[in-house]
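Record now logged underneath.
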Amino acid sequence: MLTTDSKTCQQVLRAALKKFADCGYEGTSVRDIVEAANVTKPTLYYYFGNKADLYQALVDYAHDERLRLMQAAGDRGRTLADKLVEILAALFEFLQNNRELMRIAFATAFAAPGELPAEIRYLDRCSRNFEFIHALIKQGQADGELDQRFDSKELAFGIYGQLNIYVMAHLLMPDCKLNRQTAERIVKLFLSGAGAKPRAKRDQRAE
């Protein structure tokens, strides 16, 4: 959960996370949160100006922590393939330990107009996280690990899109296993493609 020295603030955040994940933004009242956290309304307002600020704090943490994990994981890899596997594996682990938080993050992105307060922001952090992956892809092209004939942004959408599809699948179907082996398969598919490879000439002659 968010880094804070206050146990009371942590109580509020955890209670809000559970309520928002279970009931949605509109279905959760400040009273619901303070009762679940066993605190008073003035205590909640001491840490957060209102319900929207509390929700925003959770959304920000989800995206900020994903970026932090991607940066740390990327540093562990040597090649582009290594970096991508490390990143996906780290994000899959984060998802499995923070399913409710990721449900809120994705629900925010797909919320209908008017479903959330207008002041809730997420696109700037989403774009920032995507650009981290985009930068890796561009570096991979510069290093000769990816074909430069392809548009770097389209390639970044390809791998980042696969990642998020798997995340959504796990949120909908918890039995959908996500682990390092899954990450390796996704990266292999991204880098190698699923199209049939031409047979060697000697195999063709043998036919």
Summary: The chain has a mean pLDDT of 93.
